[in-house]
Each structure stands twice: as C-alpha cells, then as structure tokens.
Amino acid sequence: MTQVAARFRFSIFASLLTTLILSGEVKAQTAQLASSPEATLTVQRGDTAYSIARRNGLTVDLLLAYNNLASPDIEVGQVLRLRPPTHTAQRGDTIYGLSRMYGVSVDALLAANTLPRDTKLEVGQVLQLPVGLDAAAPMIAAPAAPLPSPSALGLPSLATVAQGSQSETDSSGASWYQNAMSLLGTPYVLGGTSRKGIDCSGFVLQVMTPLGVKLPRRSADQARAGVSVDDDDLRPGDLLFFDTVGAGSVTHVGIYLGNDSFINANSYYGKVVVDKFKSDKYWSTRYLGARRVMMDALANY
C-alpha cells in the first residue's frame, strides 16, 4: 500500500512537472513570437490583397490596417506587413511618450495591450501598437474658431506667403494657403480625403489638387514628387516629410507655412492643426527633408 501511494504521488509530481515545463515552453514561444521581427511579404505578380490576406489568415481590412493602406490596390514588389507593429520598450520609455512617438492615443495604446492606466514600462517589454499609423504627434496650440488670421498664428501675411510661393510656372499665389487654412480643425480619419475626415497625405491632396498639382496618395510616395529643397531654401508651400515611427522612412507629411510653422493632419489630436517645426524637439528630430511641388513642370512623378 505504501509503494502504491508513493507511485501515485510520483505520478502526480511528474504530471505537474510536465505541465510546468510545457507551460514554460509555451510562454517562451509566445514571448519569442512577440519579440521577433515583424513578418513581411513581397507582393508577387498575380497577388491581390484578398489572396494575400486569405493565405495568411487575415481579413483584408486587417491587412490594410497593418500596412496603413486606404485601398486594396497593391503593386508587384510592394512589401506588406503581416503582423501588427510592435515596440520593444527602451530605458526611459513611457506610455505617453510612445503614444506621442507613434501618433496614437494613450487609451488606444493601453487597450491594445490590456494595460492599466498607471502602467510603468519595463525595459524589453514588447508592446503591440494600434494599427493604422499614418500620422504623428501633438500640436503646439489648438486652432480657434472662427479660423484665425495669419497674424494671430504668428505666420506671414497672405501677400507675403503668395510672394514666397510663386514661381515662373505657378501663378496660384496664396490659394494653397487659403485651402490649407480652411481645413483647420477637419477631423483626422485614416484613409480620409475629404472635409468629413482626412489623413496627412489626404490633407496635402485636398490643398494641392485644386491647383492642378498632381501627387500620389501616400506620404512616402509624395516624398518623391517635385524637387528636393535644402533647409535654408524652404518657402511657404513646400512639403515637409517626417519619420514618426523610427523606421527611417516617410510616414507623415505637412505643409510649411513659414515662420518655423507647418500645417498637418494630426492623428494624435484627431484633426488638422498648426505645429512648430525646427523649434519643436519632436518634429525636428524626425524631420527627413522637404520637396517643392507647386511648379507644374516639376509636380509630375
């Protein structure tokens, strides 16, 4: 009877030990998956957003959200993300800081990771980022209603802006400025291109298209339009491009207003706002370059 009891106790112990080992392996595998590089796929001839999503167990909407795409139109050679983006916490990272870095709300970041509001991040902690990133950080000052005058914002007058933005091939004057300022306060909507809702590249299209300036839909593609502009030659109306994700590529665009300010569709505050440029630590450290597109001969891509 004693031997039977001993064997029974050993059997229970072995079972528990096996369970713990397997549990540890599952946790390790889960952690490894969470911290592994984002899975990507290069679009091949014949691929569609639907076929790629189906092969990889995703919905089309989720595939589009992972890749910040407004439509299922894809091109051969395009690299698509198949997992939600993640961030591995570094020393000094905070939830608020990351929400500003990636242009998402604190609540959205907490909800994506089921974290309490008073969470303190640990170095190496892997966070899932809310999908659909195509814009940047907080504004410096919220615009008032009715629309403020240029002087109220510390910006050049319309006449000065017109003079600074005109060229031999562009006679639109300050029309772009009026278009841009009329959109202040327009709600931010990922993939939006109208006054009902707009994202950063959609905002640029709303401003420039009525002037006959043809631009691609995405900010990364808009960064190849027109001609490059040196920082010391910036003029009102030039497009400013930023890397708000830290991957070394364009993820946000705005329009330079002069006087160290620019206007952009800002996802953090959920609307079109005016921000400071070089004097703002966030924007200045994420600035990638500028392009001049308001010249008919140079606006094609």
From TrEMBL:
Residues 1-28 form the signal peptide. GO terms for biological process: peptidoglycan turnover; proteolysis. InterPro entries: LysM, LysM_dom_sf, Murein_DD/LD_carboxypeptidase, NLP_P60_dom, Papain-like_cys_pep_sf. The keyword Signal applies. The keyword Hydrolase applies. Residues 170-294 form the NlpC/P60 domain. One of its GO terms (molecular function) is cysteine-type peptidase activity. Keywords: Hydrolase, Protease, Repeat, Signal, Thiol protease. Residues 39-82, 85-129 form the LysM domain. Transmembrane segments: none annotated. It comes from the Bacteria. PANTHER family: ENDOPEPTIDASE NLPC-RELATED, MUREIN DD-ENDOPEPTIDASE MEPS/MUREIN LD-CARBOXYPEPTIDASE. Belongs to the peptidase C40 family. This is Endopeptidase-related protein. It comes from Deinococcus radiodurans (strain ATCC 13939 / DSM 20539 / JCM 16871 / CCUG 27074 / LMG 4051 / NBRC 15346 / NCIMB 9279 / VKM B-1422 / R1).
